[in-house]
Amino acid sequence: MKFLRNAVLAFWALGLPLTACAQAPALTTFTVGQTTVTTSALSTGLDHVWELVWGPDNFLWMTERSGRISRVNPASGQVLPLLTLPDVTPTGESGLLGMALHPDFATSPYVYVVYNYTEAGALKEKLVRLTYSASANTLTAPLVLLGNIAATTTHSGSRLLILPDRTLLMTTGDAQLQPEAQNRASLNGKILRMNLDGTVPVDNPTPGSLVFTLGHRNPQGLVRLPDGRLYSSEHGPSNDDEINRIEANRNYGWPTVEGLCNLPSETAFCTANNVREPLTTWTPTIAPAGLTYYDHPAIPGWRGNLLLATLKNTQLIQLALSPAGDAITARTEFLTGDFGRLRAICVSPEGKVYLGTSNGGTDRIIVLENRAYVATATRPATSFAFDLFPNPTRRQATVRLPTPGIRLTIRDVLGRTVATLRPLGTTATMDLSTLRPGSYLIQADGPGGSATRKLVVE
């Protein structure tokens, strides 16, 4: 039994599947550049999938708006329910919404969820931390980190994103209380930033305040790029859905500004209130939802781009970013109408894209993949290798590479990229002072192949 347990832990650490199964039947195919992307159904019979997160156990973690939190086996599609929250109020667009997993999940097995609930007859919103037990496959010990946020059956947000500095971002909608989006004393119409215990970080824009940005209507997508850039997707009224670059202490205009600062009254407000204009807008609206970043060789045409799931337009949209990340240079639509409303999106370490539909009791998780792609780990072994020392380390480590022109990627235990480096020569020193103590993977990619080493930061 001890050998089996160690084998399972080894597979988990390496990010390898424990089982294999036959490929699911293709539903549709489309091309991205020269790549054929195949879609198939992973899981069916779901109810308004709201969030999909790739977990450190190499399972998908899912929320459904009715209140259920589950783990989903990406090989078989089996849904393993963890908990149905008893106090969720799934009315209209309200219910169980965003989710995030603690970056140090092996030692801090915490799951953060945000949802609507009813108190004294009023609909509200709260952020709750749950504790996961792998042996029991349960979530217990709910701890309210933030509550009593005004809500209604629409405009609740709400995505969660944990940053490398172990602070958490939470988007909130204006709850149809439009002036509150400009009220710094209100938590509505904001992106909030807090420590993982719910307290206010000392370096927030306003001392003692959770407000990170303001002037939002209903942001339902949030993503961080490896270099630290933040982007969100946001619902407009009957016009001007938005993609925004999120910057601390910026104002995003709502309700005075809709979309760009292109009306006389909007221009004056934007100048006076440090308004950050969106990178792109849609009129008519498309109802933008889940937002992610794709950076995997499986589908080269998507590398370095944002991917957006939409509800009203029932599309997946590729958003090409400028090199500086301050403009969207192209918008390309896929899957229009194929699967109905698309809400949730995430990318696996294998480069597969998972979409959650939001149509009702017949919802599905859809997989998008390049079935012709052969991962580096399954290719014939080569002599490509690199040295890493000291290991364990505290503040820095040196890498010795076989050739110049190699890209280094540092990933955390969730598979998230926390830093990238492209040394000019064959030796480089990595500054690790911003990383929390824990285990990381250093991946080196170059013309001669790819190799990965484990790094422990003390």
TrEMBL record:
Keywords from UniProt, A to Z, are: Signal
For this protein, the record's Gene3D superfamilies field holds: TolB, C-terminal domain
Looking at the record, the residues that make up the Secretion system C-terminal sorting domain are: 388-457
Q: Note the InterPro entries from the entry.
A: 6-blade_b-propeller_TolB-like, Glc/Sorbosone_DH, Quinoprot_gluc/sorb_DH_b-prop, Secre_tail
S-adenosyl-L-methionine listed as a keyword: no
Q: Give the signal peptide, or none.
A: 1-22
A Pfam family per the record: Por_Secre_tail
* Glucose/Sorbosone dehydrogenase domain: residues covered: 46-360
Q: Which PANTHER family has this protein been placed in? A: HEDGEHOG-INTERACTING PROTEIN, HIPL1 PROTEIN
Q: What is this protein called?
A: PQQ-dependent sugar dehydrogenase
- What organism is recorded for this protein? Hymenobacter humi
